């Protein structure tokens, strides 16, 4: 879980919202990424994702939901153009396409699509 939290914190990148369509696409991409992070956390902890009553499942959901709220706010506050939003969508989507094993690597390189986003600069 610690590694997945690291992956989630890496996603604290930059972006802001001007048009509803692009904003909606970005929000959907972030939501997909967050669901992937949850699934990976459940997998890593050996918990059935449908087991909502498990205390660890609740903790995972809460942690990922909080991280995703921060990620969404960061993207919303800094992307000022549709070009930046498209880049943010590409970045978030590239994270979503990674396997759980790739996401859990503590020193994994940031996706190339995330180049230029401050939070992803550490591993490039």
Account of the protein in words:
With about 120 residues, this protein is mainly alpha-helical. Helix content is about 65%, strand content about 0%. It has 5 helices and no strands. The chain has helices at about 1-10, 20-45, 55-80, 80-95, 100-105. About 30% of the residues are buried. The model is unreliable at about 10-20 (pLDDT under 50).
The secondary-structure class comes to: mainly alpha
Give the assembly state of these chains. Answer: single chain
Using DSSP, what is the number of strands?
A: 0
Q: Radius of gyration, rounded?
A: 14 Å
What's the order of the H and E elements? HHHHH
Largest sheet, in brief, is:
none
Provide a count of the helices.
5
* Helical residue percent band: 55-70%
N→C terminal distance: 23 Å
Rounded mean pLDDT is 77
Uncertain runs: 9-18
Q: Strand portion, in percent?
A: under 5%
What does the overall shape look like? globular
Chain-wise SSE layout:
Blueprint: H1 2-10, H2 20-45, H3 55-78, H4 82-96, H5 100-103
How would you summarize this macromolecular structure in one to three sentences?
This protein has 124 residues and is mainly alpha-helical.
């Amino acid at each position: 879980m610690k590694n997945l939290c690291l992956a989630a914190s890496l996603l604290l990148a930059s972006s802001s919202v001007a048009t509803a369509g692009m904003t909606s696409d970005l929000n959907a991409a972030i939501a997909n990424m967050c669901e992937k992070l949850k699934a990976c956390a459940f997998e890593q902890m050996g918990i059935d994702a449908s087991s909502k009553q498990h205390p660890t499942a609740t903790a995972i959901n809460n942690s990922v939901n909080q991280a995703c709220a921060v990620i969404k706010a960061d993207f919303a506050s800094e992307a000022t153009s549709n070009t930046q939003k498209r880049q943010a969508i590409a970045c978030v989507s590239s994270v979503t396409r990674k396997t759980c094993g790739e996401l859990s690597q503590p020193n994994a390189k940031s996706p190339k699509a995330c180049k230029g986003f401050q939070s992803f600069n550490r591993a490039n």
